[in-house]
Amino acid sequence: MHRFVQEELQATLDVEHVERFGQARFFFSASIHPIERFFRLRSPEKLYAVVLRQNALELPPWPDEREAAEEQLARQVASRGAWTDALRAWQRFGREGVQSFRVTAKRAGKLAAHLSSNGIAEFVGEALAEAMGWTVDLHDYDLEVMIHLNDEHLIACLPLLERSCQQAQLPFPGLSQPVAWAMARTVEPSPGDLVLDPMCGSGILLLEAAQCWPGAFYLGLDDDPKQLERSRKNSAVLEAAPCASLSFGRSDARRLPLKSSSVDAVLCDLPFGKQYGSEEGWAPRPTRLRTLHPFSSG
Ligand SMILES: C[S@@+](CC[C@H](N)C(=O)[O-])C[C@H]1O[C@@H](n2cnc3c(N)ncnc32)[C@H](O)[C@@H]1O
Q: Which PROSITE patterns does this chain map to (predicted)?
């Protein structure tokens, strides 16, 4: 996945260097202009403007007393962060100015184990209210400030985009869309290809692929009529072109109604666990799969 993220950030935002942190976080610098490029990204689930990022080992030593340590951290965040740039980026994502805000904090690790997440949020809230003139409102807020403190770093950031809310608008969500995008990216269907999802559920994998790789044809099968109904309702939300390239039908994946050598690629988020009753049941083994290769065009 990280290679795909890196490639997408480089190609879409002209980012030179992408720093990967852990399994799923990526840091990069990019110009905020033109803003539309950010809305085209498919791989990130969430996008934040980083106000402050400091190596935890380079932070001043924490006072032993919890509240004094939380106050020190709050002063650090309020005074040292790149607030002007981060707020400018935040506004470019369609927000008005800030009147009210809330702070959420997550603390983990051993280095600052005597600080509490709630205490950090409270002290940072007070410090920012004083420094910026904003009002704390935990429920009806314009801006959310997120603080992460662990053994690696102290981060303050502002959420810019959450893809599931921003782009999906699907009545029946399923697999996370960035994961669906990454799975489809492994195939990168070409125009004219037929791509099959033999257990399509609410169809997210194929919907995502149809939007990103137009020109191919997508067939979703499932043995549960309710799931197929969900797929159809989801695909009705798409624009006409990707919607027209999608078909759904009822079938048991163990007895596919397709000729051998008839599809170009198979994408599937396999069912497992209690929900699908397959804890001890069948699991598709390679020996059970038939070769499903290109349709002849005639
Ligand atoms: C993990 S879900 C797929 C989720 C899907 N990717 C989504 O985002 O909604 C697995 C699907 O497999 C279907 N399924 C389970 N066994 C099946 C079988 N033998 N033949 C066809 N579909 C099956 C279930 O009905 C379910 O919709």
A: UPF0020
